[in-house]
Structures are given as C-alpha cells and as structure tokens.
Amino acid sequence: MSREILQVSGLSMRFGGLLAVNGVALTVKEKQVVALIGPNGAGKTTVFNCLTGFYKPSGGTILLDGQPIQGLAGHQIARKGVVRTFQNVRLFKEMTALENLLIAQHRHLNTNFFAGLFKTPSFRRSEKEAMERAQYWLEKVNLTEFANRTAGTLAYGQQRRLEIARCMMTQPRIIMLDEPAAGLNPKETEDLKALIAYLRESHNVTVLLIEHDMKLVMSISDHIVVINQGTPLADGTPEEIRGNPDVIKAYLGEA
Amino acid sequence: MNRNLKQAFFSALLVWAVAFPVLGLKLSIDGISLVVHSQGSFTIGIIAACSVLMFLRVLFDKQWSAVMGRRSERKLVPPSVSNFLTLPKTQRWVIMGLIVAALIWPFFGSRGAVDIATLILIYVLLGLGLNIVVGLAGLLDLGYVGFYAVGAYSYAMLSHYLGWSFWVCLPIAGLMAATFGFLLGFPVLRLRGDYLAIVTLGFGEIIRLFLRNLTDWTGGPNGISNIPKPEFFGLTFERRAAEGMQTFHEFFGLEYNSINKVIFLYLVALLLALLALFVINRLLRMPIGRAWEALREDEIACRALGLNPTVIKLSAFTLGACFAGFAGSFFAARQGLVTPESFTFIESAIILAIVVLGGMGSQLGVILAAIVMILLPEMMREFSEYRMLMFGALMVLMMIWRPQGLLPMQRPHMELPR
Predict the structure, then answer these.
(1) Distance between B260 CA and the closest CA of chain A, angstroms
(2) Which GO CC terms are listed, alphabetically (chain A) (predicted)?
C-alpha cells in the first residue's frame, strides 16, 4: 500500500508561448485513489496527456516504478500498464460492446497470422479466453444484455462504464479517468464510486482521476492535487484540501 | 421566375459549351493539315434536344423536385431487402454460388468469354487486395499498381534470367511485393488521409519510372517478353514441349486444343482469387482485422489501449501489396509480356474504382464491381470513343444513387453466445 508507483516532478508543457502546465508534481502510491482537481482550463487534461504519452512534456520527469517514461509513445506507455479514459468518450462506435472489449485485449491475444488463418487450437483457445474475460467485465459493469449492441447506440452512462471496462481489459496497473462522472445522474455516480472501489480492492489498480464532482472526489480520494492555471496550488488529504483557503479562492474567486 | 429563366438559359448554354466541342466537332487529316468539321446535323440535333431538355428541367426545377420528392419516398429497394442483402451470411451464400458457377462454366463457354473472365479475375484479386488497405484499414492508397508491377516484374525477371517456373515464382513475387509494401509503408504510414494518398501516388509512379529506366535489367520501355505460361505439374499447354518436357495433351492423350490453355489460365486465376477470398474472410474474424476496424474508427483510443498504429497499418499495407504481387505475377504469365506501360496510374484508379463501386469492405461487392468495370468496356467496343464518357457517367450516377457502393457489407460482428 505504501510503495510509490508513479512519481511526477517538475512536469511542464509549453504550447508555443503558452505554458499550459508548469512544474506540476505528483506522487501516487500503489492502490491509492488520487484526484486531480482545479478550475476549468487549469491544465488537468494536459497533465493526463503528458502522463499517457499523447503529449511530449517540455520538461520534468515521470517515473513509473522508478523508470522514466516521459517521451515514450502513447501505446508504449499503455503497454506498461498506464491506461486512460477520455473526457469525451472515445469508444469504437460502429463496433459492438463486446468487440470494444476484444480490441483492448489485442496484445494479449494470439495474433499470429497463420494461427488465425487456419484456426489452430491455440488460436481458438486464445479467442475463447478473450471472450470469457470480456464477458466477465461486461457483467461487472452491468452491460451483459447489451453485449451485441453497437457501442454508439448505448446510453451515455453505459458508454462511460464500457470505456472503463475496456481499460480494464488491458490488465492495467494505473487507470486514469478523465471526468468519469461528467453527465452521469446521481444513481450512476454512486455506481461509479462502487466500481472504482471494486477496481482498487479486487484488481489492485491504482486510480488517478480528474473530476469536478466534489462530493465524489472528497469521498473516494486518498489524496488530492489541486492545480490552477497550470501551476500546483495545493496537495493533501481531502480534509486538508477542504480547509485550504487558496483552493477556495481559486474556485470561488476573491470576495 | 426571372431568376429561374436566367439560370435555365445559362444551363442550356452550358450544355452547348460542354457537348459541342466534345461531340459536335470532328478532327480529320486532310493531306498534311488537320481539318475541323461538324459531326453532322444528327449529332447537333441531339445536342440541341439535350439543351432544350436541360432548359426545361432547370426552368421547372421546383415542380420537378416536388414530383421526384414524392416518388423518392418509395425506396427503390425496400430497407428490409437491402438489409438482408448486406448481411455477411447472405453474401457468403451468394459467393459460394458464384464460385460453383465459376468452376463449371468455362468448360461450356467460348474461348473469348473465358479469356475475359480471366481478366476479370485478375481485377477481382487486385480489388480484394486493395480492399484490405482501403476498405478494411481505411488507408487511401493511390499507388497500388506499383505493387502489381513489382509482382509482374519479379516473375518476368526470375523466369527470364534464372528460368524459374511460375509456381516457384508466385510466392516469391508475393513476398517481393509485400517487402516493397513494407518498406514503402514504413515512412509514409504516419501520414493520414489526403497526404497518404498523394505520397502513395508518388510511390506508384516512382516504381513505374524505375522499371522503365532500369534498361539493363528490365528492358526499359520494351519490357520483358516471352514469359512462359504456368504449367500443370510440369506439363505445358503449348503445342510442342521444350526439351525434356511433356505437353498436357500428349500426356493425357488428347487432341491439341488451344482452349485448354485458356481454361487452365482461368482456373489458376480462380484459384488465386479463392485464396484471397479465404484469407480475407478469416482476417475479418481475426484480432488483426478487428484492430484495422478499430484503427479506422479512432486512432487515439487505439493508442491509449496499447495498440501500435504503425504496426497495424503496416500489416494491412503489406498484406494488400502481397495480393497485388500474386496478381502481378499471374498477369505477367498470362500476357507473356510486361512493359512499364501496363502499370500506369489509370490502373490504380480502376482498381480503386472497383473497391469504391463495390462497396467498401465487401468482397461480393468487389466481385460484382470488377465484372461491371471490365465487362462493360469489353461489351461496348463499338462505342469505344465514348468509353471514358460512360465510365464517368456511371461513376456520377453511382455516387448519386448508391453512394455506399453496389453491395456494401455489414461487418461480421462477434457475438456473445447466449
């Protein structure tokens, strides 16, 4: 519980003259839930993009298990066990829910060309296992009955859940959720909370999330990092953050 | 009304401006000078009639749209039927039927018909190959003919310089084309959409020009001729066998008949096309096929899940090129002659047209489109001057009425068994 899995220090990202992220530091311990909060446009998603390799950070280091990962390509970082969801859900809309989950297992499957061509026993087995894993997670996120529906036709809350399930198919160590509760109703938000708790307890996943729903953030996070206009503002347990005058000022403005 | 009238008048004028120079005038050589004269009053009359029709059509545009609008509510093909036709299962049965027919009829068909069917099969093979790249992986490749050329020249050169037989060279040609696909794909596949199209177009032309200018090896513009035809387990289909060889008709004690050769070539082409069909059918249900589809839909999500986009695109490019290589080596064997002029950009365009016309991603569509695209020009030999015109008209009409292609296919979805 105490081992540090992700250490970020001095992370900065510059777009031309705009310093979108400036010196953000972040330490995530194994099996923790860490929230990244801040007002709109604070650079939270930019931090996510840097961590997952979609942007190449202009400065700073990102250590995963002590190994630097900054500057690696997105798919390489994902293979190291850091996967993410997106603020605007990015499912494969024309494919079924089941297929979305199969795609995510791509690198765990038997992708040998000839094995697939001649349906060798090992290929069949690998496909069958993939199906079973997909089935397991469909059940976990309550989507079994929608397995054969195309993802684009699912309701918004279902799409969000499917995206999390899809991340879990890659057998990740850290899952990064970008505003997972956005657009969910209170009941769905409760379910999400339970799901996150389940991921952490039963699958040893570390969770890093961006969220605006303070009730959710305060109730599930072990640690909160606040950033404002790209710079770190505060950092601490939910109680510490709740009472921090700087944070309140950043959110509500000065009186 | 006044504006309508102006527009109608302008449209009618446009008909004249387009049709008169193209259809109404005729160039002929008189001694050493070129003379322009009219095509005759009949053609002029047709153009005039067309312009009048156009005038009326634009003038009464509103009324016309109202009538058409009412009519178009009734679909040409009811949705349930079109849904049934695009189901993978239905299409599989239709393809089965076509295969059986394709196996039987050459033994009854005429020599010319079998010959054309062989040509169609080459294009089916090319279309199926390009369908992997364009239809499944969504990479617009305008230089596909380059790989076709690599395949053709691989066989031509191996047989010319080393005397290797068709069946040995066929896999080598496929491999060569695949290697080229791999090497060319590597630098260009980070590009997207239009940029990729332009770069592949360039590569296609480079390959052709390279073959044309490598005179010492490829014979330059003259190409390589006298390429042997495929053999049937070492039996040739020529009238007389070379030293130490046997001919087909002698071995089976038949009368020599040149149609045997044509039918055999046809069957070889059919074999290759069936191989392509089988491989693509499997690919659709393999992880790599799913990954192509996913990549086409959302590359960013793919990367976030640990899929390497370059490798996946490259596999599509390489496989597609491999089929072009097979088609190329068969083409070389059938023609007995390869020249760089067989591999111009228009070939790429025709193959791409087959894929688009058939309906992206659909094998049955590709087969039908290849038949249409090759058979129509053959049947319209008398109107050869207007071939390109009809070709263009067909394309425009298709895009209006069936933008999704002749027979698109719904992808076979993986289903959860219940």
Answers:
(1) 33
(2) plasma membrane
